Structure formats: structure tokens, C-alpha cells
């Protein structure tokens, strides 16, 4: 500060003055000098004056504005106060920095007593001494305060240094911990890296292991599949071998049956113009051939497809042989029957010539005379040869049904499944026959033919074959024939045009599989005995319902069906039969004759005209038969057929009319109008729905 600078300058000036150079001794009183002399001497500054000037005067100047008289009064009061006067020698010596050292204690004690007495003697000296001591006290207090502050400062510094050291220790610990943590992290990263590398290597090894395991599994699976495939092929080969073996046994059984039928034809030996022994010899050779095939197959394990095919060819040759023999027998029987008819006709004409012209003018006779006796011209019973034929067909049907009885009555689920599949495969194609297109009809025919030939066919999404069961072929043949007749009973009865597509398929199957044709006739004769023709007679003790069933009626819960429905069903079956005898499968062998051709239609027509008519039934069946088959019979027999129609008009119409009541005249009038129209135009129209060449091109 400026004031401090001036104070120092003042002090420097005072020191340089004369008085400033004076020496002051505190112990002047001890030397015994006179006070006055002392007062007269030059003043000297105390050694503490500098401190007073430096520390006290600035404070006095600062406090000057507050009280100008304060220093003087303070000095006076300080001097007057005895508290500032030291009373203790220790205190006195303490506050005397300049006191010389005393050699002993006695001298010091005397000096202090002397000094005290000297101080008390001079008030000015007391004041000065008080000031000096006050200054010393203040100096000591300030020094103590400074020391205290210094100590506090040092304590603070020590604390600060301690705190700083503590903080540095903490930082060091933290740094050390951080370093350890970092080292731990580095070590952890290294370990994790090595672990990842190990895991990667392990995953790589696992992947390689999985890949190798996959390859091994694939190889094992392929080997297993190959083994299973080989086992399956072996199983299939064994199954096919067993199926072929069963098929061979079935073929042998059928061959033996055909051989028996061939032997049974011995009774017609007198009628035949060919050598029967040649047929029998060839039949025996074919039987021996199949036996040899079965014997060779049993020795080698299982038969091959070639062996089965060879056996089938042998069986087919046997069928053809028997069919040719049957045709020869049929032709011989037909020739004999025609010869007998011609002889009977000649005899009848001779008898009529002998009776004279009056016999032609007589009215037509009724079925019974006045006495109730049957007219001698017509008969009720069928001819014996026809009845034998009818009975043979029924026996063959019964024998066929007994053959597959084990299959139908089997409790085995597999056998039941085979039975259902075979039945569907046989009946569903027949239900699909329609007049849509010839190509569709050919597909159905091929499917039925393949099934009967032992080839597998698709039915309901599964492969079906008659070789799955030894009785499969008999079952399929029986069900197929039954379905054909049922179609005539239901479909043809409702839609007359349906008779022709059903009949052409049945005719083609009949030609390739004669046994199916025999079963068709058996089912047809059983459901419609008028197709024989055969009028069942009521026997004593027979139930009325059984007799009605024999007549063709359906009896359910003791209720007989209505006459209209009965006639409708009979009409459908006769129409189917009339269509079968005139149609042939267009893709078959044209060189062979029809297995059941128009000659059987001529026989049926002749026999039904030789029997007494039945009310409502005969007229209906004659109309249906002539409408379907009349055109074909006209082309085949020409003049003879027209003679037959004239005979019906002139001789048979009166008989039908005589037994027909007024409520049943519809069928008779319809037949009469149809016949009169045909005779008038000298032509019988082609039946509606007849299959033309354009149908087969569609």
C-alpha cells in the first residue's frame, strides 16, 4: 500500500537521523544512571520499533478516523493498567528478549528486583516499558497466531497432502484394478477367442461328422432300400409265383372241367358228322400239357410268366375246341330239329289235305274245349330237349356258385376285400355301358376282357386281378353274367335303346368267354322263364309265393309286384335277349359263327308259338321280340319268316284274343297293329337305337 511505503521511508529517515543512530539500553536503570541524564541523552529506538512501525502503526492509522484520541488514551490506559506490568520474574524474563544471561540465579533475582523497583520509580519508563511489553505480548500473540495459522496451514496441507495421497492411492488402486481388469479382459478375450476358435473347430468337426454321418446314413439308407427292394422283389416274385401257381391250378381245374364236358358230348356222337375222337385226343393232349407245365414249375420253384401264358394258350385252345364241338353239336341239333319240323310240317300239310277244304273254314279253336280238355294242336310243356338244356344251364350256374362259396362266406378281411374289389371291377364297367360313343364302349369291353383273362385292371384306384384268389375267376364270371341280366331287367326296361350297346358287349364277351354266356342264359332263364320259353307249373304242396317267384314275379314281404312292373321287367330282358342273338362284337373274329345267334331266336319264336299263350304276357313278349329282332330274322329267313308272321296273324292271334280280358287288350292291340303294318308294307323296320357303323367311328 502507499501508506506502508511512506512508513518505511519515514523509518528509514528516522534511522538515518541523529536520534535514530542513538543506542537504547533497556537495563539503564540497572547501571544506576540518573534518569534525568538519561532523559537528556539522545533517545534510542528499541529493537522492536521496526515491528511496531510495521504492524502497530498501520492499525492505528486505520482506526484513526474512528477515534483520534484512541492511541493516546490507549497508551495512557495501557501504562496506567497494572495488568500490563509483569509481576512474575518468569514473565519478565520471557518478555525480555534482550536480557543478558545471568550466571547464577541469585544475581538474576537481584537484578529483576532492582529492575522492578526501577520501573516503578519512573512512570515514563513504566509506560515505555509497558508499551514495549505490550508490543512483545502482541508480537508473541501474533507469532502464536501466525504459528497457529501456520500449523493450521500445515495441518491443512498435511490433510490436503494426505487426501491427495489417499486420492492418489485410490487412483493407483483404481489404475491397478483397471490394469488388472484390462489384463483380465485381455485374458478373457484371449480365452474367449481361443474358446471360439475351439468351438469353431468343434463345429467344423461336428459339421464334418454330420456330413460324413449323412453320407453314411444315405449309404445305409440306400443299402437298406436296396435290401428292402430286393426283399420286396423277392416277395413279389414269390407272390407272383404263388399267384401264377394258383392260376395254373385254376387253369388245370377249368381244363379238366372242359375235358369232362368234352367227354359228355359222347351222347351226341350219332348226330355229329365229324370225328369226335379227334376232339377227345386233342383235349387229352392239352390236359397233359398243363399237367407237365405245373409239374415242371413245382420242380423249379415257381412258374414263370411264359409257363402261365403257355397254359392259358392251351386252355384257350381247349375252349375253342369245346366251342367248335358245341357249334357242331348245335348245328347238328338244329339240322335235326329243322328236319323234324319239316317232316312235321309235311305231315301236317298232308293231314290238312286229307281233311279237305272244310277244315280251313272252321273258326280258330280256343285253348280248351267245352269239356275243359287242352287243345291237341298246342302244348303247355316245353320240349324235352329244351328242358334238358334249361336244366343243364341251371346246374352249371349252381355249380359255379358253389365253386366260389368259400370266397363269399370267408371271414378273412383280406378275402372280403378281394371279393369286393372283384365285384366292383366286374359290375361297374357294365353299369357304364351307354350309347354315347363306340370308343367308350370299346374301353369298357377291353377292361372286362382283361379282367376275365387274368390281367390286372384298375378299379377304385387299386389294381385288381382274378388271379388274387383261386375262386376269383368263377366269382367274376358269375357276377358279370348276373349284372348283364340285371341291366336288361332295369336299364333296358326303362330305356329300350340301351339294349343294343349292352347286348353287343355281352355278345363279344360271350364269344371270347363262352362260360359267361352260359351263365347269362342261366340268369336270364331264372328271372324270365319265358325266354326259354318255359311255363312253370304249380305243383301240389308248393307255396304260392314260391310259384309266383318261379313265374318271374318279385315277392317282398308276401306282397307280389304289380302286373305293369312285372311286364316291364320281362319286356326289358326279352329285348336284351333279342338284341344279343343278332349282334356281334365288331372287333372280333368274323370267321367264327355267333355263339348264340339268330337260329336260337327262330327256335324261341317257333317254340312259343307251339305253346298255349298266356294272358297279357305272350302278346307283350312277342311284340318286344319282333320289334327288336324282327328285321334281322326277316333278312335271315326271308320267306319262312313271313310265313311265320302270317301264321301268327291267322292262327295265334285268335288264341291270344280268346284268353285276354277287356282290361288287358292293350298289349294284344299293339302287337296286332305292328304285325298288320309290317305285313302291309312287307317290311319290318330297323329297331330304334340300333348300332350303325357311324356309332363305332365316334
UniProtKB/TrEMBL annotation:
Gene coding for it: GLE1
Low complexity compositional bias, start-end: 88-104
One GO MF term attached to the UniProt entry: translation initiation factor binding
Coiled-coil regions, chain positions: 206-268
Family, similarity comment: Belongs to the GLE1 family.
Single biological process term from Gene Ontology: poly(A)+ mRNA export from nucleus
GO CC annotation terms, alphabetical: centriole; centrosome; ciliary basal body; cytosol; nuclear membrane; nuclear pore cytoplasmic filaments; nucleolus
Main location: cytoplasm
Location relative to the cell: Cytoplasm; Nucleus, Nuclear pore complex
Protein name: mRNA export factor GLE1
Source domain of life: Eukaryota
Source organism: Rhinopithecus bieti
Keywords: Coiled coil, Cytoplasm, mRNA transport, Nuclear pore complex, Nucleus, Protein transport, Translocation, Transport
Functional summary from the UniProt entry: Required for the export of mRNAs containing poly(A) tails from the nucleus into the cytoplasm. May be involved in the terminal step of the mRNA transport through the nuclear pore complex (NPC).
Annotated segments matching region Disordered: 65-121, 335-375
Start-end of Polar residues biased regions: 65-80
Amino acid at each position: 500500500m502507499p501508506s506502508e511505503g511512506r512508513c518505511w521511508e519515514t523509518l528509514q529517515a528516522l534511522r538515518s537521523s541523529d536520534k535514530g543512530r542513538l543506542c537504547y539500553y533497556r537495563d539503564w536503570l540497572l547501571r544506576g544512571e540518573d534518569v534525568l541524564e538519561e532523559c537528556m541523552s539522545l533517545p534510542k529506538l528499541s529493537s522492536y520499533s521496526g515491528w511496531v512501525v510495521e504492524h502497530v502503526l498501520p492499525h492505528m492509522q486505520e482506526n484513526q478516523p474512528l477515534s483520534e484520541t484512541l492511541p493516546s488514551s490507549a497508551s495512557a490506559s495501557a501504562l496506567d493498567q497494572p495488568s500490563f506490568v509483569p509481576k512474575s520474574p518468569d514473565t519478565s524474563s520471557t518478555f525480555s528478549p534482550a536480557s543478558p544471561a545471568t550466571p547464577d540465579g541469585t544475581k538474576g533475582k537481584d537484578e529483576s528486583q532492582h529492575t522492578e523497583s526501577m520501573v516503578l520509580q519512573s512512570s515514563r519508563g513504566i509506560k515505555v516499558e509497558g508499551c514495549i511489553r505490550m508490543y512483545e505480548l502482541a508480537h508473541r500473540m501474533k507469532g502464536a497466531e501466525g504459528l497457529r495459522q501456520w500449523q493450521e496451514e500445515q495441518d491443512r496441507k498435511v490433510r490436503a497432502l494426505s487426501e491427495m495421497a489417499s486420492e492418489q492411492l485410490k487412483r493407483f488402486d483404481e489404475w491397478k484394478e483397471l490394469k488388472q481388469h484390462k489384463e483380465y479382459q485381455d485374458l478373457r478375450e484371449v480365452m474367449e477367442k481361443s474358446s471360439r476358435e475351439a468351438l469353431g473347430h468343434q463345429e467344423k468337426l461336428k459339421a464334418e461328422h454330420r456330413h460324413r454321418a449323412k453320407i453314411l446314413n444315405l449309404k445305409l439308407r440306400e443299402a437298406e432300400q436296396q435290401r428292402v427292394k430286393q426283399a420286396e422283389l423277392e416277395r413279389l416274385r414269390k407272390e407272383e409265383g404263388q399267384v401264377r401257381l394258383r392260376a395254373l391250378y385254376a387253369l388245370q381245374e377249368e381244363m379238366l372241367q372242359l375235358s369232362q364236358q368234352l367227354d359228355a358230348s359222347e351222347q351226341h356222337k350219332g348226330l355229329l358228322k365229324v370225328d369226335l375222337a379227334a376232339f377227345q385226343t386233342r383235349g387229352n393232349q392239352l390236359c397233359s400239357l398243363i399237367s407237365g407245365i405245373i409239374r415242371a414249375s413245382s420242380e423249379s420253384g415257381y412258374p414263370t410268366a411264359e409257363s402261365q401264358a403257355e397254359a392259358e394258350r392251351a386252355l384257350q385252345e381247349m375252349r375253342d375246341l369245346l366251342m367248335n364241338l358245341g357249334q357242331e353239336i348245335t348245328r347238328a341239333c338244329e339240322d335235326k330239329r329243322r328236319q323234324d319240323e319239316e317232316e312235321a310240317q309235311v305231315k301236317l300239310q298232308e293231314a290238312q289235305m286229307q281233311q279237305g277244304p272244310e277244315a280251313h273254314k272252321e273258326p280258330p279253336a280256343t285253348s280248351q274245349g267245352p269239356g275243359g280238355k287242352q287243345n291237341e294242336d298246342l302244348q303247355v310243356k316245353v320240349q324235352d330237349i329244351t328242358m334238358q338244356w334249361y336244366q343243364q344251364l341251371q346246374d352249371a350256374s349252381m355249380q359255379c356258385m358253389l365253386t366260389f362259396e368259400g370266397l363269399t362266406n370267408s371271414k378273412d378281411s383280406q378275402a372280403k376285400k378281394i371279393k369286393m374289389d372283384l365285384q366292383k371291377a366286374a359290375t361297374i364297367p357294365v353299369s357304364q355301358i351307354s350309347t354315347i360313343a363306340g370308343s367308350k364302349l370299346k374301353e369298357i369291353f377291353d377292361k372286362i376282357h382283361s379282367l376275365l383273362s387274368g390281367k390286372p385292371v384298375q378299379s377304385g384306384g387299386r389294381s385288381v386281378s382274378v388271379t388274387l384268389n383261386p375262386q376269383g375267376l368263377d366269382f367274376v364270371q358269375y357276377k358279370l353274367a348276373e349284372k348283364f341280366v340285371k341291366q336288361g331287367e332295369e336299364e333296358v326296361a326303362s330305356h329300350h335303346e340301351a339294349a343294343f350297346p349292352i347286348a353287343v358287349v355281352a355278345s363279344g364277351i360271350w364269344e371270347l368267354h363262352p362260360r359267361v354266356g352260359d351263365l347269362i342264359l342261366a340268369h336270364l332263364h331264372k328271372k324270365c322263364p319265358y325266354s326259354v320259353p318255359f311255363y312253370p307249373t304249380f305243383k301240389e304242396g308248393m307255396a304260392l309265393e314260391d310259384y309266383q317267384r318261379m313265374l318271374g314275379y318279385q315277392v317282398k314281404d308276401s306282397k307280389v309286384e304289380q302286373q305293369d312292373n312285372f311286364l316291364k321287367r320281362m319286356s326289358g330282358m326279352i329285348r336284351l335277349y333279342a338284341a344279343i342273338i343278332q349282334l356281334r362284337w365288331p372287333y372280333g373274329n368274323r370267321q367264327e359263327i355267333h355263339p348264340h345267334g339268330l337260329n336260337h331266336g327262330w327256335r324261341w319264336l317257333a317254340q312259343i308259338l307251339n305253346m298255349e299263350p298266356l294272358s297279357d304276357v305272350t302278346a307283350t313278349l312277342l311284340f318286344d321280340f319282333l320289334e327288336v329282332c324282327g328285321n334281322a330274322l326277316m333278312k335271315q329267313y326271308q320267306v319262312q319268316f313271313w310265313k311265320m308272321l302270317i301264321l301268327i296273324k291267322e292262327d295265334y292271334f285268335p288264341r291270344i284274343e280268346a284268353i285276354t280280358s277287356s282290361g288287358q287288350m292293350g298289349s294284344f292291340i299293339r302287337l296286332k297293329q305292328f304285325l298288320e303294318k309290317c305285313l302291309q308294307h312287307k317290311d319290318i323296320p330297323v329297331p330304334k337305337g340300333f348300332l350303325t357303323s357311324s356309332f363305332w367311328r365316334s
